[in-house]
Write a structure and sequence with these properties.
The protein has four helices and no strands. By secondary structure, the chain is an all-alpha fold. The protein is elongated and about 50 Å long. The two termini are 17 Å apart.
Length: 123
């Protein structure tokens, strides 16, 4: 396992922990639907990062393309969740269109993952 993959695994763990904390916050705060959505995005995509790195390690995904998809999951889910959390707690977002940009990047990352599965493995 290379150091980039190890970093991605650490980030997936942090995403998962943050997702659980946001789920708890959404359960205990009034009008916290943004936190529930942020929690879901982090938890789902933390698992996607773990899966992508595991599949790259098993040789079932093109290494470079699969790694790019995992990086995309981390950046996009963090962007999406970060924007929603700031809106909940600070009353403003990261920047205009941050959550939709993160959502679009998540879609692209899933398509990149599909490409990594379809692309021939480099020998």
């Amino acid at each position: 396992m290379n150091s980039l993959h190890r970093i991605l695994l650490v980030l997936a763990g942090i995403m998962g922990a943050c997702g659980v904390m946001l789920a708890a916050g959404s359960a205990h705060l009034a009008d916290a639907t943004r936190l529930a959505a942020a929690s879901s995005m982090l938890l789902f995509h933390a698992s996607a990062v773990l899966g992508a790195i595991a599949l790259v390690g098993r040789g079932l995904l093109n290494r470079a393309i699969g790694t790019v998809s995992a990086i995309g999951f981390v950046i996009a889910a963090s962007l999406f969740a970060g924007d929603l959390c700031l809106r909940q707690y600070a009353g403003h977002g990261l920047f205009p269109m941050a959550a939709p940009t993160g959502g679009t990047l998540l879609i692209v990352s899933w398509l990149v993952l599909a490409l990594a599965a379809a692309w021939p493995r480099r020998t």
